[in-house]
């Protein structure tokens, strides 16, 4: 059974105003048009929606029950029309952000709230990846924008810029690790223990570049959250975003007192030169650069 939008709007306005004439004024229609639309709706639904008094309309029990459903249908119709208009104007159907845990969670949450307010009907996807994986996903078109710890160079097909703020990295081990007992930790001390590294950054600049190698004593993982868990279990030391540690490992890890640490690491946003950004991605890029 199909119900005309005009009939549903007439019903909702008459229920809100308490009269056909007031509903007609709000809708810019004649009173007879509104009255006829509601009468047709009552026939289609098979129920009486109003008790028609001499001065004011009163909803019947059926009308009260159906009003919320009608309002849901009208709201869905509004969303459909709004999204169709945005798509017709060039808005992309979906926006994918490839995100490193190096990016501060507070900034990410603020940008998400702004995105929701500006484009409430846009499909949004967040993919967690690190370093080289971020570049691959954006380069392949799997993601529109990528956020990662700044690299010394990028593939020529990718554009890049520095976002506002930096990632705050520290060196961490489990409280039970022998390194945690030292009042000061030098590079030679670190070299004696297994390092936990990202597995996708062998040929790219990382926060670990100025630390000594550990020979074969290295375990790796594809993201910082997995490295955090490995460090919490005592398997080695790792350079980790401090906001990640405070959020997920409070009390389980100790930050090592090493000269030059903690350090601020710039964060870059990357996008493809070969695929033009849509309106939502362009807007989000500007917010990332200027917030």
Automatic annotation (TrEMBL):
InterPro entries: LysR_HTH_N, LysR_subst-bd, WH-like_DNA-bd_sf, WH_DNA-bd_sf. Keywords: DNA-binding, Transcription, Transcription regulation. Residues 1-60 form the HTH lysR-type domain. The keyword Kinase does not apply. This is LysR family transcriptional regulator. It holds the Pfam family LysR_substrate. It comes from Phytopseudomonas dryadis. Coiled coil: none annotated. CDD domains: PBP2_LTTR_substrate (cd05466). Belongs to the LysR transcriptional regulatory family. SUPFAM superfamilies: Periplasmic binding protein-like II, Winged helix' DNA-binding domain. The lineage of its organism: Bacteria, Pseudomonadati, Pseudomonadota, Gammaproteobacteria, Pseudomonadales.
């Amino acid at each position: 059974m199909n119900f005309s939008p005009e009939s549903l709007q007439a019903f909702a306005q008459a229920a809100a105003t308490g009269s056909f004439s007031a509903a007609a004024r709000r809708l810019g229609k004649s009173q007879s048009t509104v009255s006829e639309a509601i009468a047709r709706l009552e026939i289609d639904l098979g129920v009486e929606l109003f008790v028609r008094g001499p001065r004011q309309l009163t909803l019947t029990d059926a009308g009260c029950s159906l009003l919320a459903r009608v309002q849901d249908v009208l709201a869905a119709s509004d969303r459909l029309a709004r999204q169709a208009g945005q798509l017709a104007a060039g808005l992309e159907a979906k926006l994918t952000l490839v995100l490193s845990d190096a990016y501060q969670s507070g900034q990410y949450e603020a940008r998400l709230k702004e995105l929701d307010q500006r484009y409430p009907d846009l499909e949004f996807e967040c993919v967690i990846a690190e370093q080289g994986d971020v570049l691959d996903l954006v380069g392949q078109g799997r993601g529109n924008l990528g956020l990662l710890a700044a690299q010394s160079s990028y593939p020529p097909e990718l554009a890049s810029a520095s976002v506002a703020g930096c990632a705050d990295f520290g060196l961490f081990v489990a409280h039970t690790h022998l390194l945690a007992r030292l009042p000061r930790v030098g590079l030679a001390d670190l070299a004696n223990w297994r390092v936990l590294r990202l597995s996708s950054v062998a040929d790219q600049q990382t926060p670990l570049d100025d630390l000594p190698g550990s020979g074969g004593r290295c375990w790796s993982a594809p993201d910082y959250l997995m490295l955090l868990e490995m460090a919490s279990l005592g398997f080695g030391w790792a350079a980790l975003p401090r906001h990640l540690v405070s959020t997920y490992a409070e009390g389980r890890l100790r930050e090592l007192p090493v000269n030059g640490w903690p350090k601020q690491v710039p964060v870059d946003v990357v996008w493809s030169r070969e695929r033009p950004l849509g309106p939502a991605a362009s807007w989000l890029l500007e917010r990332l650069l200027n917030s």
